[in-house]
Amino acid sequence: MDDLDALREKLEELKQQHRELDAEIARLASEQSGDQLQMQRLKRRKLMLKDQMTALNGRIIPDIIA
């Protein structure tokens, strides 16, 4: 497995975690007594994952100046 494959695998892991956080946030939002502090923490973590995914995408598909 080369570096590119490892990056793609890591990107897929991050995407899966992002989807799981999204589902957890939706579940908390639907609850009447949803913990707002927990929801904020999950949203912050979701944004951090999004940043990591963007960085990995940039390494997998580098910018090409035409």
Let me know the number of strands: 0
Poorly predicted ranges? none
Percentage of residues in helical conformation: over 70%
Shape estimate: elongated
- Please report the number of helical segments: 2
Q: Note the main sheet.
A: none
* Order of helix and strand elements from N to C terminus: HH
Tell me the strand percentage band: under 5%
Tell me the number of structural domains.
1
Query: What is the CA–CA distance across the termini?
Result: 30 Å
- What does the average pLDDT come to? 91
Structural class: mainly alpha
Rg, please?
15 Å
Based on the model shown, name its key terms.
single chain; 80% helix; 66 residues; mainly alpha
Brief overview:
It is built from two helices and no strands.
Can you put this structure into words, describing what you see?
The protein has one domain (3-57). It is mainly α and 66 residues long. It is built from two helices and no strands. The longest helix is centred in the N-terminal third of the chain and has 28 residues, at 3-30.
SSE topology:
Elements: H1 3-30, H2 36-60
Helix pairs in contact: 1-2
